[in-house]
Amino acid sequence: MSRGGSAHVVLLWMAFLAVHVITAVAGWVYPSQPMGDVVLVYEPWSAAALSGGPIVGVTETWVYPQLALVPMLAAKLLAAPLVGALGVSSAYLVAWAALVAALDALAFAALVGRSPSRPRRLGAWFWVAALLLLGPIALYRIDAITVPIAVVGGLWLTRRPAVAAALLTIGAWIKIWPGALLAAAIVAASTRMRMLLTAAAVSAAIVGGLLVLGADSEIFGFLTEQTGRGLQIEAVAATPFLWLAVAGTARIEYSFDILTFQIGAPGAEAVGAVLTPLMLVLVVALAAIGARAAMRGASVSRLLPPLVLSLVVALIVLNKVGSPQFQTWLIAPVVLWLVLDRSRATTPAVIVLALCALTCLVYPLNYDALLRADLVPVLVLTLRNALLVVLLVVGIRALVQVPAHRSSTIRE
Description:
By secondary structure, this protein is mainly alpha-helical. It contains 18 helices and 2 strands. It has helices at 3-29, 36-50, 69-79, 83-86, 88-112, 118-134, 143-156, 161-172, 179-188, 192-213, 221-224, 239-247, 268-295, 300-317, 331-341, 346-362, 367-371, 375-400, and strands spanning 251-255, 260-264. A two-stranded antiparallel ribbon has the order 1-2. The longest helix has 28 residues, at 268-295. The protein is globular, with a radius of gyration of 21 Å. Residues 407-412 have low confidence and may be disordered.
């Protein structure tokens, strides 16, 4: 490796470490308690499981897939030596941030290596920038655990398809969205059967383990647990109702069952009810477009990135939940696009960085004002949600324009 290349790698790692420290510390000083989920729900869940109490996802139905409990338990064990000096809550927060940073570092190493190509360097800088702009929500949520898994899984899809499929399946059993990367690869790549068999074997092993632990009806409870929830205020489809709230004709209400703020207005429940069916229709349509392109001989490097991004954005745009951490889902697809086809990745990368910045402006920086339906945060959130729709259009447009040819070689 040249001296210039070595210096660039060192600079990348310095930026990576600095951003993780800045983002972790910001969680302690930003308003609206951006670390709340970690200390208020993850720690009690893990404490209960380790002390002989109820085990979420096993002895009771849970909102997350069962493997989400594993990093929560890991953070609890890592926090144990720190409890005496910091107290239970602070120790758990420090351990959680360290766990996420360690997983990110492993994925960052897989991305950068010793002598990264220009596309990989761009992907690394994009990841660093996205973390900085999104702020503490990028670290202090269970979604942060899935980002490095998805990055590595995405990078290995064509060269280590079985390992990539196993990683993405594990990621989907933590938070569903990494399954979109696996689904896109199954559609786009010639190794689809190997990936399908691997995913099935991993899932069977997980389900078998859960059955041994005593789970039965709880195993797939994460698919049904949120079916009765309302339309969350940050969801894209909630945007018109937020403007009604500004005008005083809609309400922002807190659900103690789901622990989130939802829209209370005529028509909101009906809108929320149609979103999931629409999401399924769009996902199937996108997969069909991708399958058609694959059958016509489209290269994986051209087909996979826009298909992955479109599927992931569809999961966000047509979701009745609009949690700010959903923006972390966009990091891996754009990193993959930059690595495989960087000349066409600029527009989605810029849009995602803007989405990260706008999301941080809404939560946590102006969340209290949003709950009051003040004009400025509602305007910022409206812009963020409109930009999500734009990103979906950009992804679908790129997907439709993928040319048909027979080469499947990936070049960086």
